[in-house]
Input
Amino acid sequence: GTRKRVLIAAEQLRYVANPNAARLASGRTRTIGVLAPLSGWYAAEVLAGVEESCAAAGHDVLIGAASPVARDLIFRGDAHFHQRIDGMLLVDIACTPDGEHQLAELGMPVVVLGQPLQRVTSVSVDNVHGGALAAQHLLALGHEAIALVGGRAHPDTPHHVPTDRHAGFTATLQHAGAPLRDEYYAHDGGFTIDGGHRAMQRLLALPRPPTAVFFLSDEMAFGGLQCLREAGWTAGRDMAVVGFDDHPASVAFGLTTVRQQVRAMGRLAASLLLSEL
Output
């Protein structure tokens, strides 16, 4: 019938459907917006997982840089971005209560990855439990002089991740009768390799250095391991070191770490968003 003749004509003319025209006709862009920091391994792993889920569902991914200015624009409903997407995924954004309220009122499906929220769908790991696991591991090895290197991943906003990891770790030490001493807490590691290096330098310079250090991220731990090598110390023999993340390079560094399955979280977050569509 008519359909067969149209298909034959399309084949002869080598016709390719215009996806933009189809999207206009359906009122759907078949595109997911992702707001994420465009540096660091975490965002790259998350995006790989997001892309896997979206590709399987026939959706494109539009990526925006998660600068404070861009974040605020999108929270307020920036039409330039919103008209091009059906739903939005925010990665490691540090959402305040006011920001969560704005996201809930956007009028489109939103999923936040990395932070547990009440009013918006979210995907995160149990960071309190992760911190407790690190403490339990070091206590089981017999350590009592245990240090913690933390920091703020987002200096401009409160962030639950370092707070939760810190809380789980310190509560477990406290319960075991080996509370974290003030001089063993380096709170300005900044979630960077350089920050971890500087923190370890300060800990090694103490009259009584700790025998074990928990870094709230693997990248800070990498800096700590570098500092130990430069000081002639051997990690695992002279100083126990534990990180958090299971960074792709952690195996090469020989780093003990609390694992979070970042790519799988990206797949799950995208699947949740697609199911809302």
